[in-house]
Prior knowledge:
- The chain is an all-alpha fold.
- It contains six helices and no strands.
- It starts with a helix and ends in a 10-residue tail after the last helix.
- The relative contact order is 0.16.
Amino acid sequence: xDAALYSVLDYxxxxxxxxxxxxxxxxxxxELENVFHILVDFPSQIIASEIFQMICGELExxxxxxxxxxxxxxxxxxxxxxxxxxxxxxxxxxxxxxxGIDFNIQN
Length: 107
């Protein structure tokens, strides 16, 4: 990955790693989504998977679970969006957050 992408990742990881509460979302009140929602739509799923692993390496499991359970403006969690998109990230999400994922969240 190029230096610009690493710079963005360092910023995101630092922002989330320093938070004392459930990580915040990106966007306006009408466009709520977190970094895992955004990764599902990332053009390269290989790079998205690398970014996911980098972020998970910096966050405590409670924050990872909170992000995976968080709904966007349409009520979708990152797992919902990954399943809809048939994204390879679905497996990563489940394997990494399995202990804290709420599999009963419905949209």
